[in-house]
Amino acid sequence: MTNEQNAQAGTRPPQAARINNERSFHDDVFVDPYEWMRDKESPRLKQYVADENAYTESRMAHLEPLRNRLFEEFRSHVQETDMSVPTRMDGYWYYARTQEGRQYAVQCRLPVRDEDDWNPPEIDATQRPGELEGEQVILDANVEAQGHDFYRIGGMDISKDGRWMLLGVDTNGDERYDFTIREIATGHELPERFEGIAAACFTPDARYVFYTVLDEAQRPWLIRRHKVGTDVADDVDVYREEDERFWTGIGVSFDERHLVIGTGSKTTSEVLMLPVSDPEGEFTPFIPRREGVEYDVSFATFEGAGERGEDVPAAVVYHNATNPNFEIDVIDMRAHAAPYSLGDGTMIACGSPYGCELGDAVIEGASAMPVGTPFDDPRNPELLRGVRGLAIDGIALHRHFVALSYRADGLPRLAVMGKDAAADDFLHGRPWRFEAVTPPALDGDWTPRDVPVPALDGFDGEAGRLYSIGTAGNPSYDAPRMRYLFTSYTRPGELHELDTRDGADVLLKEATVLGGYDPRDYAERRVWVTARDGERIPVSLVYRRDAMRERMPMFVIGYGAYEISSDPGFSIARLSLLDRGVLYAVPHVRGGGEMGRAWYENGRRLRKKHTFEDFVDVTAALQDCGLADPARTVANGGSAGGLLMGAVANMAPERYAGIEADVPFVDALTTMLDPSLPLTVTEWDEWGDPLHDAEAYRYMRDYSPYENAPMPEPAADDAAHAVWRDGEAVARYPRIFVTTSMNDSRVLVVEPLKWVARLQSAGLDALIRIEVEAGHGGGTGRYRQWRDVCYENAWCLEAMGAEELLETAVR
């Protein structure tokens, strides 16, 4: 809808004031008429925000019946009164209860029966919190949130004896948390408060609190020590991170023997340690930082594995000093005293160097190889050999088992082995004998030949469930069995417990989806699309099996930044799309971490355009093969994925009927030019430094959505007409729907406001919904969040022309 059509419908978008502001860098001048919107406290901006919200509500009013239907569909699938599986920590079983009609979960616990009590108690989920004999309510967020429009817990730490709770809360959405110390049994709070901080933790005995302070740019930079029972004004600085690229934080090691400070930028990290027995001592680096090297360290014990039955202490180091896709080294601390260096010890798992910027340091010519080239290293466990896109994500050593997390073929994987076998392999210098953990098959599930997709003939790929799998709920070193969680796009999550001693796999909980939901009605498929530069891009497709046809409405979603992977996961809200015959597509674009470090490197800094090109090329491939309809395709992304949305709207507007951008990072260049803004300096490793680097400036100037969006050109009829930077008329542009929040500290509200104002001034159809009391993650409370997603999905379904349920999906 253009502004002319808006007028015919009796509504026009607000007319934002134009106050020209020149931005001049590297011999380039950009005139920005909306930079005045940066002052979010100004009366002018507050009125503009109110006017935009009113305009959006008037334009969206006709969708209220659809929104209500979507909400009822959502709610019909949810087991509203439920509880999590209890998890043992120290002397208690901890779990969360949810109750029908209540916005927040209630945190509860039961005491363990004895030291050998490792079987979670059976609890009636329908009971009211605190009704069960012996049950303690440790936090009812429904009570705590009263009087607040926004409420989010930002941290909860409990002392080892279970008496004290350290609780952090944000009540305005700016991600600055106020922490208090509360006695769980009585609810009594100590007088000391830690206000506006990033995070905090107890020492195990709760005699000290260590916490992280934010600077004016929202960077966690200072660690302080507080002795419980003393005045906060007397707290001591124990670590300052002066390098503005680095964030820092503190916690207690898994074995509870050390306090650990972790500090890192996007490309470099360092770990400093202090024994918990000496909390007022000095932190020292485990291994001094080295520019461009990331590492982490943990400690483990191979119990009774020595020649005389003694324990073997070990340091486990995860790093990329000698392999850009990371490796895990285990150091026998009996044979190697401190100090340590990266690369010490025995390498037990390493990732693929193919396609990585520094891959040639591992294998000559590796950096020029396709990322998906199968990789084989004889030192690796057998199940890692010949894997494509191999990345090592981490390892956890418990008393009875060892779990290895890695990525292969664009998906997360999990492997496990017994601790005794691991000790034997380590001490004898053999590759470790990990075995893959695979989800149990679904009874009566379809097979690949049951879900043909004729339009995709010739695409490389296969049908089958696309799983995410990983360890979950294993906070205790002594637990005899490993818990793991898996889920797919259409198969609800299951929590299992695996005993490595006999292979017994027990289902602890399966997510309940009401309303007659059957995962066998839905299919998943992984295809690989060749991008314009020849790289093969993994794509996940999800759809109802009985809805597959040509020229489908398509909802395509992406992110592609910070090495964050868009992995498979179940969503109740997605069902309302699938049940209306929508094809759900996820291009796993470069800039994410789906195929390891090389995938990330090839979608950041001066290669960032690969992210946008991959998304467009996948969209085009699915449309050109006849599977999806460009006139019924809607794209979605949030935050850095919102940058992706703005970029593809400018690059390929003909491919999308609509674009939903959530808290979008669309004024990226302006932000990266201002080091006083939150996150800017730390983000230069991600996007480049356009302030000091002219090449980075020109590169970002060429893709940053705001500067490259269509602009108005007055015409004889006094109506605004959209033109591109070169003056060419905009023939087609997608409808735009934006969500944002006034208190967002990551993507400031000024960015989406300016973008929408520019689009509207050019006569294009752009709507923005602005949360006044919320932050980067939107509102809080589950019912409010459900209504928000239904609000957004209603707009998307209308843009796709898919408002009505399929006859086969009518419930």
From TrEMBL:
User: Does the record's keyword annotation contain Protease?
Assistant: yes
- Sequence ranges assigned to domain Peptidase S9 prolyl oligopeptidase catalytic in this UniProt record: 570-801
Q: Name one GO biological process term.
A: proteolysis
One example of the protein's molecular function in GO is: serine-type endopeptidase activity
Outline the segment boundaries, as ranges, of region: Disordered: 1-24
Q: Which residues form the Peptidase S9A N-terminal domain?
A: 14-298
The UniProt keyword set, sorted, is: Hydrolase, Protease, Serine protease
Q: Name one Pfam family in it.
A: Peptidase_S9_N
Matches recorded under InterPro entries: AB_hydrolase_fold, Pept_S9A_N, Peptidase_S9_cat, Peptidase_S9A, Serine_Peptidase_S9A
Instruction: Spell out the family assignment given in the record's similarity comment.
Output: Belongs to the peptidase S9A family.
Designated name of the protein: Protease II
Organism whose genome encodes this protein: Bifidobacterium castoris
